[in-house]
Design brief:
heterodimer; A: mainly alpha; ABC transporter involved in vitamin B12 uptake, BtuC; 2 domains; two-stranded antiparallel sheet; two-stranded antiparallel ribbon; 17 helices; 4 strands; globular; B: alpha/beta; Rossmann fold; 6-stranded mixed β-sheet; 4-stranded antiparallel β-sheet; 25% strand
C-alpha cells in the first residue's frame, strides 16, 4: 500500500484521537481555570462505553454470539478494581495507577474463561439463554456476597493511591479522562488488531457458517470460547475505568440493563463495521447525559431509536455511512443532497410530534408528581389544553404520511444511483 | 495401501436403518465414485466418514487409524476434507478470505490471535494462487455469497482441497451446472485432486465414467457392486437397480 493510500485510510482515526485529546480544552472554563466537570465526566463515560460496546461487538457482530451477560465482565472489572485500589491505597499492591486497568481486564478475562467454557458449548438461542442465566446469577450473587460486592450500597474506593508512572495523583477529572482515553485507544487498537488475526477471521467464518468451520480443521466452539474470553478481558478494562472514574461500583455496573445497553450501543452504531459500536457508544452516552437532563422520557427515545434502527437500518449508523462509500467514490454524493433535504422536513415533523406526545403524556403523570411545569419548544405549555395534543398528533400523522412519500422517492434516487454504478463496472 | 476403510458401517435414524452394513476399501490415490438412486444413503455415507454424524455400529479407518469416534475438525486435521452438496461457504467473507480461512489450520496458525494476517506473505500468496487455479482471481474481493452458482461450487471445491488433505470427499460437485460448467468442473477436479484419494458422490453418469477409477453402487444403504467402471456397467444387478432406470 502506498503512503498516500495508507494515510487516507488512517486519517479518520488520527482525527478522532486528536479531537478526543482536545475535547477537555474545548470546554475548558478559561475564566476560572477549571475544566467543565459535566463535560469531562460525560467524555470519560463515553470512553468506557466505547470499550464496552466494542468488546460486545467482538461477540455479536464478529462472532455472531448473542450474549446477554456482557455487563457481568464489565461489572466484575469494576468491583475488582475497587478492591485493587483499596489494596494499593493500603500499600499492599505496588502497581502504578496507569497499569491498574490491566488487572481489572485480567479479572474480566478469568471470569469470562469460566463462564465462556459453559456458554460457548451451545449455539444460537441456547447460548443466549445461558448468558442470560449467567447475568442473573452474578447479579444475584452481587446482592448476596457483601464482602466483595458490598450489597445494595456497592463498594467504594479512593483513586488517589499515590503511585503513578508519571507522578500524577488523579485528583482531577481531566487526568482521569486522559487515563481513560489512553486505555480506550489501546483497547480499541488491540480489538482492531484481533479482527485481523486468524482467530478474528475464524470468528467471522464460524459466524457465517458454523459447520463449515469444522470441516476446514477448526473447532468453532474453541474459536468462540477464546473470542468470548478475550471480549471479557476488554469489558473488564472498561469496568476498571468505571471504578476509577466514579470511585464507587454498585449493582448497576453488572446488572442486565447495562448488558442491554451494550447491545443497544453496538447495534445502533452498526455491528457490521468495526467502528460502528464507537458511534453507538458516543450517541447513546450523549442521549443519556444530554437528553436525560432535558427529559424524563429519554429512555423512551433510546428505545424507539433502537426499534427504528432494527426495522429500517439493520446495519446501524456505520452501515448507513458505509453504504454511501461507492457513491462518494464515484463523486455522485451531491445528487443525494436534495433527496436528503426533502427527508428532513417530514422527519422533523414526525420527531416533533412524537416528542410532543411523549412529553405531554409523561408530564400528565411523572411531571405532575414532580410539580414541574412542561417547558417545550421555548415556552411553558398547558398540558390540560387540547391544542398542544392536537398539534403534536397532527405533526406526527402528517409527518408519517409525508415521510412515506419522500422515502419512496429517496429510494428511487438511491436505486437509480446504485444501478448506474453497477452498469459502469 | 488403503486410504479409507469402511467395515460393516451401519447408521440408524431412529428406527430407520439408512446405512445397512457398508464395507468398502478405497485405495490410496484412487478416484472412487459412489452412485445410486435417490435416498440410497450416499450423502449419509459422506456424513459418517467425515464425522458429521456418529455411526451406529461398525468401523471407519483412515490410513489404518480409526476415525469414526472423532469430531469433524479432528478428522479434517488428519487429512480428510469434504465438500457439501448444498454449497457451504462463508458467505459474508470475501472469496479470498474464504480460501485463506481454509488454509489457516493446515498452515499451522491454529487459534493465533497474535499474527496479523496481512503480514503472512506465504499464506496470502498461496490463497492467491488458489484463486488463480479456481479461475476466481477477478472475484477476489467480493463477498462469496454474491458469486454466481457455478463460481460458488468452484470455491467450495477450492476450500475443500486448500488444506492439502490427502483424502478428498466431493458431494455432487457438478449438481445444477450447465454442460460447459460441468466440463470445466471436471477438469478442475482432475487437476486439483492429482495424487490424492478422491471419493465422490455424483449423479451425472458422464462425469462418473469420465473421472472414476472405481465405482461403487449403493442401493438402500447397501453396496450392490463395486469395481472398475466397465465391470460395474456390465453388472446385471446394477443395470436392473439403477442404470436401467435411466434409459
Amino acid at each position: 500500500m502506498s503512503a498516500s493510500r495508507a494515510a487516507s485510510r488512517w486519517w479518520p482515526t488520527i482525527v478522532v484521537v486528536l479531537v478526543a485529546i482536545a475535547l477537555p480544552w474545548i470546554f475548558y472554563d478559561w475564566a476560572h481555570h477549571r475544566g467543565s466537570g459535566f463535560m469531562i465526566s460525560m467524555f470519560s463515560q463515553m470512553g468506557m462505553m466505547v470499550i464496552l460496546a466494542l468488546s460486545y461487538n467482538m461477540l455479536l457482530g464478529q462472532a455472531g454470539l448473542f450474549s446477554l451477560c456482557h455487563a457481568t465482565f464489565f461489572g466484575i472489572g469494576g468491583y475488582s478494581m475497587v478492591h485493587f485500589l483499596n489494596a494499593a491505597g493500603d500499600g499492599d499492591l505496588p502497581v502504578p495507577m496507569e497499569l491498574m486497568p490491566l488487572l481489572a481486564g485480567l479479572t474480566g478475562l478469568a471470569l469470562a474463561i469460566v463462564f465462556g467454557a459453559m456458554a460457548t458449548k451451545q449455539r444460537a438461542t441456547a447460548f443466549a439463554m445461558i448468558t442470560l442465566g449467567i447475568g442473573e446469577l452474578v447479579s444475584t450473587a452481587a446482592l448476596m456476597f457483601h464482602h466483595f460486592f458490598g450489597g445494595e450500597g456497592g463498594v467504594s474506593t479512593n483513586r488517589m493511591i499515590d503511585h503513578s508512572l508519571f507522578g500524577l495523583n488523579y485528583a482531577s477529572g481531566i487526568q482521569v479522562y486522559y487515563l481513560i482515553l489512553a486505555w480506550t485507544a489501546i483497547s480499541t487498537g488491540l480489538m482492531y488488531f484481533l479482527t485481523q488475526t486468524p482467530l478474528g477471521r475464524m470468528a467471522n467464518a464460524a459466524r457465517d457458517n458454523f459447520e463449515r468451520a469444522q470441516f476446514i480443521g477448526y473447532d468453532p466452539r474453541m474459536v468462540r470460547f477464546i473470542q468470548f474470553a478475550l471480549s471479557g478481558f476488554f469489558a473488564g478494562i472498561g469496568g476498571g475505568l468505571y471504578a476509577i472514574t466514579y470511585e464507587i461500583v454498585t449493582f448497576d455496573a453488572l446488572a442486565a440493563p447495562l448488558s442491554a445497553n451494550a447491545l443497544l450501543m453496538a447495534y445502533i452504531g452498526g455491528v457490521t463495521v468495526f467502528a460502528g459500536p464507537i458511534l453507538g457508544a458516543i450517541l447513546i452516552t450523549l442521549l443519556q447525559s444530554g437528553v436525560s437532563l432535558l427529559s424524563n422520557s429519554w429512555l423512551v427515545y433510546v428505545g424507539v431509536l433502537f426499534i427504528a434502527m432494527v426495522i429500517f437500518a439493520p446495519t446501524g449508523l456505520a452501515g448507513i455511512i458505509h453504504a454511501h462509500g461507492p457513491i462518494r467514490r464515484s463523486g455522485r454524493l451531491g445528487r443525494l443532497l436534495v433527496p436528503y433535504l426533502r427527508l428532513v422536513i417530514p422527519s422533523l415533523a414526525l420527531v416533533l410530534g412524537f416528542v410532543g406526545l411523549v412529553e405531554l403524556l409523561s408530564f400528565l403523570t411523572i411531571g405532575a408528581a414532580q410539580g414541574r411545569k412542561l417547558v417545550l419548544f421555548g415556552g411553558p405549555i398547558d398540558i390540560k389544553a387540547t391544542m398542544p395534543w392536537a398539534i403534536s398528533a397532527g405533526c406526527l400523522i402528517v409527518g408519517m404520511i409525508w415521510l412515506r412519500f419522500e422515502a419512496a422517492s429517496f429510494h428511487r434516487v438511491w436505486d437509480g444511483l446504485t444501478a448506474e454504478l453497477k452498469s459502469r463496472r | 495401501m488403503t486410504a479409507l476403510q469402511l467395515r460393516d458401517v451401519r447408521k440408524n435414524f431412529g428406527p430407520t436403518e439408512i446405512i445397512r452394513g457398508v464395507t468398502l476399501d478405497i485405495a490410496s490415490g484412487e478416484r472412487h465414485c459412489i452412485i445410486g438412486p435417490n435416498g440410497a444413503g450416499k450423502t449419509t455415507c459422506f456424513n459418517l466418514v467425515s464425522g458429521r454424524f456418529p455411526i451406529t455400529s461398525g468401523e471407519i479407518l483412515m490410513n489404518g487409524t480409526r476415525i469414526d469416534t472423532m469430531p469433524p475438525h479432528r478428522i479434517n486435521r488428519m487429512g480428510l476434507s469434504r465438500s457439501f452438496q448444498i454449497t457451504s461457504i462463508f458467505h459474508r467473507l470475501s472469496v479470498f478470505e474464504n480460501l485463506r480461512c481454509a488454509l489457516l489450520w493446515s498452515s499451522g496458525y491454529r487459534y493465533s490471535f497474535w499474527s496479523p494476517l496481512s503480514r503472512q506473505k506465504a499464506l496470502n500468496e498461496r490463497a492467491d494462487m488458489l484463486l488463480e487455479d479456481l479461475n476466481l482471481a477477478s472475484r477476489r474481493n467480493i463477498p462469496a455469497g454474491l458469486l454466481a452458482y457455478a463460481e460458488q461450487r468452484a470455491l467450495e471445491i477450492g476450500m475443500t482441497i486448500a488444506g492439502g488433505a490427502s483424502v478428498i470427499l466431493l458431494d455432487e460437485p457438478t449438481a445444477g451446472m450447465s454442460n460447459t460448467e460441468t466440463d470445466y468442473a471436471v477438469a478442475l477436479i482432475r487437476q486439483v485432486t492429482r495424487g490424492k484419494t478422491l471419493l465422490m458422490v455424483e449423479h451425472d453418469m458422464k462425469v462418473v465414467f469420465d473421472l472414476a477409477d472405481t465405482i461403487t453402487v449403493l442401493v438402500y444403504g447397501q453396496v450392490i457392486a463395486s469395481g472398475p467402471p466397465a465391470a460395474v456397467r456390465a453388472n446385471r444387478s446394477v443395470q436392473e437397480a439403477y442404470l436401467g432406470a435411466l434409459d
